[in-house]
Amino acid sequence: MAQSYCDFAREHPLHQAYHDQEYGFPLTTDAALFERLALEINQAGLSWQTILKKKENFQRAFDGFDLDRVASYGSQEEERLLSDAGIIRNRLKVRAVIENARRLVVLREQHGSFANWLTLHHPLNKEQWVKLFKKNFVFTGGEIVNEFLMSTGYLPGAHQDSCPIYHQILTLNPPWYQQ
């Protein structure tokens, strides 16, 4: 039987902090949701620990995940990011984050915020979410979409029922619990 993230995180300080304070907690601001999407995109093919170690660097490099600023990035900013050893220097991932910022700006204009757009489509099952994300964003495969939605409170499964954090998250009435 595979070890759950709840069990695994207890033994790793970096993971424990993320598990206890962020994973599965509902996010509502555009910057927080965009950051999580960007981090999930950058995690593809790598360990989550690598991303957690570089999280502050990502925040700095992408201007605090301010949608308007990242959406306005051009070739100079892209090259700056690709030369930044503090983040993942993968051209496809960097371009995906920038392009997704542009698309999120459009969604924000249409729906008021990324959270409003997510709420408008909630509840969907994982397969429906994946189709919706692939239609609206780039570099968003099934695992990225699943982890993004679980980690932000839109899909269940971030924590085991026996985990104390699970019960703490329930008090916050995450979208998946409102079904």
TrEMBL record:
Pfam families: Adenine_glyco. InterPro entries: Adenine_glyco, DNA-3mA_glycosylase, DNA_glycosylase. Transmembrane segments: none annotated. This is DNA-3-methyladenine glycosylase I. It comes from Ktedonobacter robiniae.
